[in-house]
Amino acid sequence: MSVVRVAAVQLCSTDDIEANLAQVRRLVGRAAEQGAEFIALPENFGYLRREGLSSPCAQGVDGPFVGCLKELACEHDVWLLGGSFPEAIPQSDRVYNCSALVSSAGECVATYRKIHLFDVDLGRDGGSFRESDAIAAGDAVVDVTTPFGQVGLSICYDLRFPELYRELATRGVHFVTVPAAFAPGTGRDHWEVLLRARAIENQVFVIAPAQCGEHSADRASYGRSMIIDPWGLVLASAGDEPAVCVADCDLDHLERVRKSIPCLDNRRL
Question: Long-range contacts for 159-167 (Cβ within 8 Å, ≥24 apart)?
């Protein structure tokens, strides 16, 4: 298929799993009603822990979080990306931050474990984060073949590491997903700039579903989910509240961009 309608779902998840999944069901249904064939949820769609706490709901790929994705994918006949959930690691007190892609037949066809962990100190106003205290890093670059093209997976802080996306581009991906819970301070200055850069330099569609708003007294996210084309144009975006943004992604347009500026072929390193 040449044109694929995709949707990025923006959420404000908390540590209330039941409420989070109710919101997921409602907004995935809304995206499906708008004709989306591929729907992407943000990082921590089912449970967003308070900073410094562990993940009591850590589970396997056969657990209820991915089970919910499978149910919704089958119900609406869509491909569905669960931006991330806490995946239990046997005999470890840490988890993986794991993204799961589910087909319209309800099969989990790919998982990606976040490689780059958010260990930063943003100063007095931005706060400090030590993701590695609770999360273990993945070590595999993941792309998967779908009926609408090749999809490369990433999560949030990965966005700052262009070598990951260049590796995906060399594998021939048409889409990259960037589910996120970007901090408000860095989001204001860097979120759109980095997303558009990754789209332009790798000539891919970027689908970036985000968390938004205040999740607890000590944690908030920037929002502004986006879908961006290979020329770097923002096809659709959300604001500061839970929402769905939808865009038509034309793969013929992607090929025209790659032929007009063949930077992937012209690179020397």
Answer: 159/194, 159/195, 159/198, 160/116, 160/190, 160/194, 161/115, 161/116, 162/197, 162/198, 162/201, 164/115, 164/116, 165/198, 165/201, 165/202, 165/204, 166/201, 166/202, 167/141
Domain locations in the chain as residue ranges: 3-266
Consecutive 10-residue averages of pLDDT for the chain (269 residues)? 94 96 98 98 91 78 98 98 97 95 98 94 70 93 98 98 98 98 94 98 98 92 98 98 98 97 92
Query: For the range 62-71, what are the long-range contacts, defined as Cβ-Cβ under 8 Å and sequence gap of 24 or more?
Result: 63/88, 65/100, 66/100, 66/102, 66/108, 68/21, 68/24, 68/25, 69/100, 69/102, 69/108, 70/102, 70/106, 70/107, 70/108, 71/106
Cα–Cα distances in angstroms (integers) from residue 151 to residues 80, 155, 227, 237, in the given order: 12, 13, 14, 20
Residue range 3-266, CATH number: 3.60.110.10
Q: What are phi and psi of 33, to 5 degrees?
A: -60, -30
Alpha-carbon distance 216 to 225, whole Å?
20
Q: What angle do CA 36, 167, 156 make, to 5 degrees?
A: 55
Q: Hunting for tokens 């990754």 — which residue is that?
A: 198
pTM: 0.96
Give the residue numbers annotated as catalytic, written as ranges: 43, 114, 156
| C-alpha 152 chain-centroid distance | 10
The DSSP line for 187-226 is: IIIIIHHHHHHHHHHHT-EEEE-BBEEEEETTEEEE---E
- Report, in this order, helix, strand and coil percent for the chain, each rounded to 5: 30, 35, 35
